[in-house]
Amino acid sequence: MKLIPLNPTQRLAINLQKISRKLKIQAITMKSDDNLKDIVIITNGTPDDIVFSIIAYHQNGRKIIGIVKPEKTRLGAIDSIPKYIKHKIKNLMIIIDQEDEELKNLFAQVEKKFSSIGIRASLKDTRDRVRLYKCTYATNNINIILVINGLDDIKTKMHTIEDHLIKAHVSLRETLCSKNHRNSITQRISGIV
Questions:
Q1: Pick from 52, 56, 39: which is nearest to 145 by CA?
Q2: What contacts 67, CB < 8 A, 6 or more positions away?
Q3: Distance (Å, whole) CA 57 – CA 29
Q4: How would you classify residue 45: left for phi > 0, otherwise alpha for psi between -120 and 50, otherwise beta?
Q5: Alpha-helix runs per DSSP H in 43-160
Q6: CA–CA separation, 191 and 162 (whole Å)
Q7: pLDDT of residue 132
Q8: Is 99 exposed, middle or buried (0-12, 13-18, 19+ CB in 10 A)?
Q9: pLDDT band, very low/low/confident/very high, at 192 (cuts 50, 70, 90)
Q10: Domain boundaries along the sequence of the chain
């Protein structure tokens, strides 16, 4: 999957270009796509944009998805949704950090924001920190996928995408340590035999 920054002069576009160069991955494209059907709204910024670009790259598809970071952050970014809903857009993903709020309160605030900007949202599916809404805005029907970053098992005051990075780091470290331990045992056995 490739990402196309909807605002190529924005900091988000610069960050995506940098990470693509540093990691030697082609996570972004700058060519316009008139058939764009999916958009991701990053409501917090870096490192959310970097993490999402790496995940997108590993999807290994030809699909192109628009990505944008509105000027307003968190819940304020929802105000920009009407700007991005065009007759061709079918799916919109909103990625927001939980920070220090209760999940149920944050979901309720998002739904209230939808209503305040004229989006009629019907909850279709929910799984932990992800909700799928079937929505109508004016005459447009759109799926909105809300993703709230953070993990309850990471004990911090602020729940953000960094929670997922910490968990991945700990998991990787445990895997590497156990692999090194196995290799050490194998070497000792080989030396005896």
A1: 39
A2: 3, 4, 5, 6, 12, 16, 39, 40, 42, 49, 52, 53
A3: 11
A4: left
A5: 48-57, 81-84, 103-116
A6: 43
A7: 95
A8: middle
A9: very low
A10: 2-149
Q: What is the pLDDT of residue 163?
A: 56
- State pTM to two decimals: 0.77
CATH of 2-149, one of 3.40.980, 3.30.1330, 3.30.310, 3.30.43: 3.40.980
Closest by CA to 111, choosing from 133, 96, 127, 128, is 133
Mean local confidence (pLDDT), 116-140? 91
pLDDT (tens digit per residue) in 177-190 = 665 555 554 454 44
Specify the residue for token string 């932990």. 128
Can you point out the beta strands (E) in the chain? 2-5, 38-42, 64-68, 91-97, 119-127, 130-137, 140-149
pLDDT band at 110 (very low <50, low <70, confident <90, very high): very high
How far, in Å, CA of 110 to CA of 106, rounded? Answer: 6
Q: Contact at 8 Å (CB) between 52 and 40?
A: yes
pLDDT at 143 over 90: yes
Rounded Cα–Cα distance for residues 51 and 97 (Å):
13
Coil vs helix vs strand at 103: helix
